[in-house]
Amino acid sequence: MSDKQFDVVVIGGGPGGYVAAIRAAQLGFNVACIDEWKNAKGGPALGGTCTNIGCIPSKALLQSSEHYEHAGHSFADHGIKVEGLGLDVAKMLSRKDTVVKQNNDGIVYLFKKNKVAFFHGRGSFVKASDAGYEIKVEGAAEESITAKQVIVATGSNARPLPGAPFDEENILSNDGALRIGAVPKKLALIGSGVIGLEMGSVWRRLGAEVTVLEALPTFLGAVDEQIAKEALKAFTKQNLKIELGVKVGEVKSGKKGVSIAYTDAKGGAQSLEVDKLIVSIGRVPNTIGLNAEAVGLKLDERGAIEVDEECRTNLPGVWAIGDVVRGPMLAHKAEEEGVAVAERMAGQHGHVNFNTIPWVIYTSPEIAWVGQTEQQLKASGRAYKAGTFPFLANGRARALGDTTGMVKFLADAATDEILGVHMVGPMVSELISEAVVAMEFKASAEDIARICHAHPSLSEATKEAALAVDKRTLNF
Length: 476
Fold this sequence. Notes:
Keywords: Cytoplasm, FAD, Flavoprotein, NAD, Oxidoreductase, Redox-active center. It catalyses: N(6)-[(R)-dihydrolipoyl]-L-lysyl-[protein] + NAD(+) = N(6)-[(R)-lipoyl]-L-lysyl-[protein] + NADH + H(+). The chain has about 475 residues and is of the alpha/beta class. The protein contains 13 helices and 21 strands.
């Protein structure tokens, strides 16, 4: 086999792509991965949007901004005196970049460890032949590789606001939002989704006056309504201004910042002058430049690659995963699909259960959930029981000094099977995993209620919420 002939080529080195490549190599395939991301020096920056301008850097900034807020507002309650508190945004951004590089380098190491060949450049289809699919790599030097099977994992791009394209100086996508060099006095966000709320939280903590403009009349419509209301109450208390039901009009970017004309929920004409605007109105599949038409790869009207339930495209031997296909645009969903596809190629039975994919919003308080919401269960007519437990009554939360929020269980009225678990509060991004495991094993609320949880721990709120389904909480 030549150096340019592979069993499997993965186009894209984000969470889905690099994990798919590694799993395929573990299963004995000769694998190559193509990725075009570059670091500041022009070298490879594996990890895709998630590692470079998404999940990882945003969490680094969220952690830094949380430390700053604690030092300025919470330490005094612990008897810790802070005098002359200052902020070095450049250092904060530098730490974020270091965290990103550590993740980039970690993937390079994993490729070497698993003998995955890496090609730095943009991958695109050329043609199909008896040898498989020819893929062109446009990088420092153009080259061509061939594979019997191809996994497309090209991810997604931020959706721009019509009439107001990203300039990454005043009108920012998630990329620019992670590189703001100084705390803006006034910051606006269009869209109250995951990215918008997380970025709004970062800069609000650091001192910006933040306004969120959301077109929908409800806040976090995908979240359980009770949890969303609790979160909105907490964000409002933090002076994060959230306006719902607005219609954004003309957006103008100039030397002094950005002006936004909009109509409020009551139909009144409003205007907002800010230093920076972050646009967070969703993401679009990244298939531009893939040259899908060269091999007849079928796309839908959104530009996403059409796949069946097993991530097979309309072409034999071509698969697609992650943000570039249907389903939630989540890094961990892409990873699971990558593993499943590699195993299917090896004749195994890889499986992804969309009903047990957890969701997390890393604000403060954090929001996390898995399964169905109460409004979904009502709409479907399924009889259910609900149980909630507040962190206010949790000993560890009191010791942390963060008692905002609750844990909520939804279980089938007849069988007690857990149908959904919803949380808002401290560290719920970690607590939600117990619920995912429980739902994968078709556990009942009673199962969780009967499991011993360490004391004192935040996880006791999970046990108590499960007990609340049967109206027998012990500590509330």
